[in-house]
Amino acid sequence: MRVAALRTDIGHLYLDDVENRSQRNFSSEPAGQSRYFHVPTDAELTTVLASFGITLTTLPLATLRTAVYGGATAPFTSVDVSSATLVALAGISALVGAVQTACVTALQNLIAPSLVETGPVLLSFVYGKLSKLSAVTFQPGSPFPETETRLGYAATAAVAVVENDGNTPYSV
Questions:
Q1: Rounded to two decimals, what is the model's pTM?
Q2: Tens digit of pLDDT per residue, the chain (172 long)?
Q3: 51 burial type by CB count under 10 A (0-12 exposed, 13-18 middle, 19+ buried)
Q4: Least buried of 25, 78, 87, 148, by fewest C-beta within 10 Å?
Q5: 170 in any annotated domain
Q6: How many domains does the chain have?
Q7: 38: which residues sit within 8 A by CB, 6+ positions away?
Q8: Residue 38, class by beta-carbon neighbours within 10 Å (0-12 exposed, 13-18 middle, 19+ buried)?
């Protein structure tokens, strides 16, 4: 599963209920799946593109955001980081073989990092933070979203959860 932040108005989203903390052994295990999610900044996207020799003249950020998010500016409602979508973009289509694959993978990991579908991740998707963040009625800071609204924040999904193919909505 891949998780992509959709909202720019709430900054970084911390997802911390995707691993079992009581059984972690930090000295012998790799870093867990808890992490911050955010919409990549222009600087982050430019850095990835530049590392593969793609200029903003060849692939403007507005074109990349439109292909990935369905629009050049927030609020975003969906994400498509499939290989087919990214390879079709100018600049990336000019790359060949392993370099093209590495560029697509780098963009996918920046925009929509992958989570391993462990028990805690699935529970988060069904009942936990991931389910709340992906709900179309999500409103940050509201303990009772059905009765209380926060001024200045829209009620819309904060993240999109897709299959590993990059565009199919995830389901259990």
A1: 0.86
A2: 999 999 888 888 888 877 766 555 555 555 668 888 999 999 999 999 999 999 999 999 999 999 999 887 777 889 999 999 999 999 999 999 999 999 999 999 999 999 988 888 898 899 989 999 999 888 877 555 555 566 667 788 899 999 999 999 999 8
A3: exposed
A4: 25
A5: no
A6: 1
A7: 5, 11, 12, 13
A8: middle
In terms of residue numbers, what domain contains 42?
2-162
Residue 41 corresponds to which tokens in the numbers above? Answer: 């900044």
Number of residues written out for the chain: 172
Half-sphere exposure of 160 (CA within 13 A, CB side): 23
The tokens for 87 are 């390879």
Burial of 126 (0-12, 13-18, 19+ CB in 10 A): exposed
Q: Note if the bond before 40 is cis, omega within 30 degrees.
A: no
